[in-house]
């Protein structure tokens, strides 16, 4: 046991260097800062923008219940959104028709609505009226750049609906037209979740919320497996090149202890990286989803939240996946002649990590065919990617089956690695192995 502990300490010190610790902290703060920045941009975009209205006074319409124009209708919409009188005067600006561009720049207007000269006469003659939209382009980024156009569409639709309501005439006429256009009313949605009926959520909303909770896991697993796998294989190649592996193998320590110590140490470091990435991404997503109007529904309200036991299972699943990956790396690294050749052996591991990542992100376990499910189950790295979605759906059978499979896979990979460590392949390489030479027809 003391030999195993010493090897684990040695490997952890070599893998978890001050530079790697700094890189972990940088990742966390990077995601936190990025999440805060994007969240701030979304929060700014959620505020109603400044709009301008021009040429509306001459195009004011007279109805039995008073006058109607585009300017007052937009102000009414902003008021209905809870905007104060003081803020309203700064948000809906009258545009000088002779200085449209200047006014847009001066008042920071996102979009200006200019009513057509023939608007009033066209409406009175049963012809559609026209409202023009004016912008002044300035680079504003992906989020803010689309806000002005989106708000313009909403305002135009609101103006259109409001004028349509006035043109319908009396309340009886409005009711009759409303009935003819929409004779059937929507009675709401009813969704059964684990036998419980809910009337305020749809499956699409649940899928969207679940995706926002689970989308980070596949990416983290793929990154960690590729990163740690590359480190372990490269380390073995370097040990061979520097002859330190030969020294280690001559010491009075069981090969099983050496292999277990190396895998356990690398798995601990990989888990540290994984948790660090999860914390960073959690800050990033929370900064975005916490903005009002952009956050997902509360899954805990529908009995789909992860408790402490679920997080323990998820962490265990991630740890075992890393152990399985390291077992494969140890096997691949045994055939590496030196540091350079070790670098080329990470490709199979990368493919095994990328395949389940894409499948789980696009279709998941429950949306995949039986063939895809078989492929996902066989690849050990898939199980922590599937675990979060399965736990949210209370599918403990899939999670526990995956944990059992990964335990068996890890044990077999360790036994195979121990077998390789006891053979001459580790030192002489695959080309010098007696069985390979016999297969090639050479005399031993």
Mind explaining what this structure looks like?
Helix 1 (2-15) crosses helix 13, helix 10 (203-214) packs across helix 18 (382-392) and helix 14 runs parallel beside helix 19. The chain has 2 domains: 2-38 and 202-439, no CATH class; 46-179, 3-Layer(aba) Sandwich (abc type-2 transporter like fold), CATH 3.40.1710. The strands form 3 sheets. A 4-stranded mixed beta sheet has the order 4-1-5-6, with helices on both faces. The protein is α/β, with parallel strands linked by helices and 444 residues long. Strand 2 (61-63) and strand 3 form a beta hairpin. The chain has helices spanning 2-15, 18-46, 70-80, 85-91, 100-107, 119-124, 141-145, 147-167, 171-181, 203-214, 216-241, 244-250, 255-289, 308-333, 339-343, 347-362, 370-378, 382-392, 396-422, 425-428, 434-439, and strands at residues 51-54, 61-63, 66-68, 92-94, 111-115, 131-134, 191-193, 196-198. It is built from 21 helices and 8 strands.
Secondary structure topology:
Layout: H1 2-15, H2 18-46, E1 51-54, E2 61-63, E3 66-68, H3 70-80, H4 85-91, E4 92-94, H5 100-107, E5 111-115, H6 119-124, E6 131-134, H7 141-145, H8 147-167, H9 171-181, E7 191-193, E8 196-198, H10 203-214, H11 216-241, H12 244-250, H13 255-289, H14 308-333, H15 339-343, H16 347-362, H17 370-378, H18 382-392, H19 396-422, H20 425-428, H21 434-439
Parallel strand pairs: 1-4, 1-5
Antiparallel strand pairs: 2-3, 5-6, 7-8
Helix pairs in contact: 1-13, 2-13, 3-8, 10-18, 11-13, 11-14, 11-16, 13-14, 13-19, 14-18, 14-19, 18-19
